[in-house]
Batch of 2 targets.
Target 1
Amino acid sequence: MPRNHAGREGSPFTGIGPVYMKELADHLSSIRMLVLTLFIIVFGAFPVASSLQQLRTTIGSDAYLFLRIFTIEPEQVPIPFIQALNFVIPLMAIGLGFDLVNSEFNRRTLSRVLSQPLYRDALLLGKFLAGLTTLAVALMALWLIVFGAGLLLLGLPPRGVEVARALGFLMVAIAYGGVWLAIAMFFSVVFRSTATSALCALGLWLFFFILWPLIAQAITMAFVPPEITSLDQFVGLQQLALALQRLSPGTLFSEAVLALLNPETRTLGPMLPSQMRGAIMGAPLPLDQSLLLIWPQVTGLIAGMIVVFSASYVIFQREEVRA
Amino acid sequence: MSDNVIDARGLLKLYGEARVVDAIDLSIRRGEIFGLLGPNGAGKTTTILMMLGLTEISGGSVNVLGFNPVRQPLEVKRRVGYLPDAVGFYDNLTARENLTYTARLLDIPRRETDARIMDALQSVDLAEVADKRVATYSRGMRQRLGIAEIVMKKAEVAILDEPTSGLDPHATFELLEMIRRLKRAGVAVLLSSHLLDRVQSVCDRVALFNKGQIALMGTVVELANQVLGAGHPLLIEASGKDIAGTLGGIAGVRQVVPAGEGAWRVTADHDVRAEVAHRIVAAGGSLTKLSDLQPSLEEVYTRYFQEARHAA
């Protein structure tokens, strides 16, 4: 059986710098990147514009007015900004990642590049990091646009805590993009054909968005006993449904973002009367408490990214370079 | 330290049950051009990939410039240039940008990079199109760009996989000339091919692959002696009385075989061309052709596999 690489010499990161720089340059100068950026701006700007319009008319004493730009559900467009992002970020990540590795096969550049002094580790990691950077740059640009538009149109500077929460939101969005980038790259390692890998990644994306909520519901229904006799039983079912939902990265993203941008959010699961004791309804949580609340979601996203990346890494190591 | 740049001992590659490369021994000397010949699927490319550490070795050992490709692939890949079968470059980049990327991967100092790239492109006559995108390149130009990469790398060993496949005769001629130039620069060249006559003209030594094993190895003349028997083969075309008898009477001639209308093949112990000409003319015949047949690799190859089949 194939020997593993135990005992090989030299750093696995040799050559990662040039790979990263080249991939980044490729991404940033590609037409695809331009299209994706346009896409995300159109998708993002529309809800933001309409929510800003609405916010200008409602002058209230909202302490977190600035964050409402992201979360409010505008009247004209019934999609809040974060919902749009939840949907579009995966598409963007898939667009960047679906041909990262198999295009090297198809252009027959893989064996030539791998005959230079670098390990496959460096190639894969360099490509992934370059994709993630590209994604981060695009999201950051979008974030700044929204922020700037908010400043101009609301005429109201955000408070420090709002900036911090919005920054946290940006980080979560990047981690969410990273998961989908890793998934797209995984398919690009598994399939030699770029069309197949794009199709599979998009298929998974649609599956998580359309089918999975229904399937999760159906599975939960199967566990419903003929009669619910206790509160525990009911809570158990609720938690099962949530746990299934949370297998989708989109759920983790929207939960984390909800808690960050809506400081009033106290729990992301079913709320028990015992948890309500002493709570002032509608009072915002301090930032550190919100962060604690979303910690599992964020860890889940990052862990998912690492797991999927490792899977592609293992497969890529075993792949034959000859076409 | 031996003069061998590559030493393989009992090199083995298994794909499941199939022995794709079956315990071969192979050594390549400094400064020679060595040809790996054989039909497609005989295990040539796999052997090359194992030498570069690009595929796992199932058994045996290989040593490249004193390094073990399994444990020290980076050291090997730093010193060995590789031109894969149907090499690919990034089409959206120019030749210069493609080589710059390789130079970065090789960690060539930045102030040397430009000069080395231009020198390399000049040596393969691509300097004028250095800033054209590779998408506009013909297949022959891509192969030459691959050679330029090896030149830029200042590799001690160049491994070329099917460098001439799919090239027109002129491009092939140019490429072979560049391979000779590599040799003159002191680079040991290992090339694989299934095109025998092309390879014959540049190789110092060859190894004949068959089903994962090396069937024959040595210089072309050695192989010819081994397979076709020793001697000088001649082709004679003449007209006159009893030419075959006249030829047979010459001292040193071992065999006379008719080779078509008015033509004979003669095998002799030494060069008997002068004697042949003299005798035929003296016997009143007219000699229209007298040529020294270089032992051709094609012939060696065909004969060997015929015999191998008969023996089986």
Target 2
Amino acid sequence: MLIIKGLTKYFAKNSPHETLALDNFNLRVGKGDFVTIIGSNGAGKSTLLNLIAGTLQQDKGEIRLSGEMINNQPEYQRARWIGRVFQNPLLGTAPYMAVEENLSLSLKREKRGLRLGINENLRNFFREKLSELNLGLEDNISKKVGLLSGGQRQAMTMLMATMFKPKVLLLDEHTAALDPESSKKILKLTQDLVMERQGDLITLMVTHNMKQALEVGNRTVMMDRGRNIFDIQGEEREKINVDDLVRQFSILGNRKDKYIEDRMVLI
Amino acid sequence: MPISLFLHALEQGLVFGIMVLGVFITYKILDFPDLTVEGSFPLGAAVVAKVIFSGGDPLLGTFLAIIAGSLAGLITGLLHTKLKLTNLLSGILTMTLLYSVNLRIMGRPNIPLLGKVTLLGEIENYFPNLSMDYLIPFFFLFLVVILKFIIDYFLSTEIGLTIIATGDNEQMIKSLGVNTDLTKLMGLCISNALVALSGALFAQYSGFADVNMGLGTIVAGLACVIIGISIIKIPTIFWRTIAVLVGSLVYRLIMIIALRYGYSFGFKPGDLKMISVLLVIIALSVPFIKGKLNFADRFNLGRKDLQNNNGKEV
């Protein structure tokens, strides 16, 4: 269970440029939930993921994972339970390191020692995992990651974010920077990898694409100006379509005047 | 060209090669241009000279030099990670600090070691039948090869991989559960320990320690690294450490030839630093002159500014 209570985050606090990025944000996500998060630019979606992962520090509020308060732990400690995939496919992998080295780094996230980072057993395990991606990477295990395409790198990052069996998976518009074909593949891969964990994983996926937000996962949260304004799941979510969602967004976000604009941005 | 020139280049290339391995770890692995080496090289020399001059055991002195070097790296690392100073400024501060420290350690600007028993002298006593001319290069070669393999092994361990990743993609490796402050500190300590060891051995080899002997260490180190990886372009750790050692040998050979024959071209000894810089510039501009930079060249030369960000190709 991931419980987020009263989470508040300012940028440039106490300056003329002070912005409230998250405003008393609340969310409870149970094991097995796959939540898609939507909202316009500046709604606080990425800030939320950065606070959960520990890249940013909150100003107020708390984050609990399986009962343990994690909001004061540094990012590297939370990484034991949290897998992340970023929008930019270049961020999730180390370009001048080999495929197998990247995988090895992501597999063991604590108590690293003076054992060799890669051995024959691990290599076989990596080959097996890579072959499931159907990208032919299993035959290029010692190739430098920088020589792979953006789609291939993002697929690797997906694998790295799930292979170590995290409790939480954070996806930040991870298909947005890819071409349509790769984007589709990565989304499919995401669903497969999440399915593999059979209700044992909490997934939060930020997306700009309303259609995607309703098709993937089992719950959708809508954010506006740092607040959780709309949260649907189950039957209610199945009945709703993209247009309803945009309309909801305009009403709840008190942005009636911006309906057309929102439609343009969100669909 | 007389054979003794080659032997000199070999000896110096190997002694300085240890320093080059250190510079390689910070500059290429950690992506941290560490100016501390300008101070930690003479620091190693100062410590060992002080110990030997006061009648101490040269092996102990060499060992203390290694410790002192790693402490110097630690200071730079703490300035950078805890006080959030930039990497260049952290190195400059420590380097300047070490100038005073080195003077304090030695008590004067220069300590001659002629007539004292150094590590090399002890080794000579151990093998009385062998000629010093071949014994010293052999000893240095032995030491450098051992260090090379230790570094190779270390960089392929779990911890070693996190150090490489810190230099390659810091944001990623943080999100994979690594405290990058710690990996930077480790890298800097190891690097400066190697540089100080190199300084300690050079002092015993050349028979003196001088407070100014670190001047230009960083450019020499960079020149060796860059020359080496321009010659050998295989991007595995095993070959890259060989490459920088080869770079060190080539660089010393060029320097010795410049010293020996430079007069006929109007060069003076003071021009050596200029020659080092020209070597660095030439080695870095070869791919430009050839007309294009490919992945391997960027990898080798560390031109991060030339990486594009469109996600298609790095």
